[in-house]
Amino acid sequence: MTGKPSETTLRLSAATLVATVATAGSLWFGLGLGLTPCDLCWYQRIAMYPLVVVLGVATVERRPEVVRTALPLVGIGGVLAVYHSYLQATLTECALGGPCAAVQWESPVLGLSIPNLSLVAFGLLAVLLVWTWAQSGRE
Question: What is the model's pTM?
C-alpha cells in the first residue's frame, strides 16, 4: 500500500475527518461548555459517533464498500438534524420532550446553532459517501 493515495482514500479520509470534528465538537459542547444535550442531540450523536471508527477503519483498509454501512447512519442523523433545525427555526415544541427547540449556542460568525452544525456535518458526509459510491467502480 505504498504510493499516491487514490481519490477514494482521500474522500474516505475527508469523511473520517468530518465525523471526527463533529464528534469532538459535540463533546466540547457537552463537556467543555457544560451544555446539556436534548433528546434529539443524543440521537444525532448515536448516529455520528460510530462513523469515526467505521470510516477510519475503511480509510485504512481502503474499502469504499463502507458506504453501505455508513450511509444509513448518515441518513438517519441527517433527517434528525433537519427536524431539529426546523424545531429551532419555528420554536415549535419537541414531541420527544426536553428543550429541543431551545437554542443553547450559536456560532458567532455564521449564526449556526448546534443542530445546524450537525446538519452541515451530515450533509458533508452524505456528499462524500455518495461521491465515493458513484466513483468506486471507476477507479
Answer: 0.88
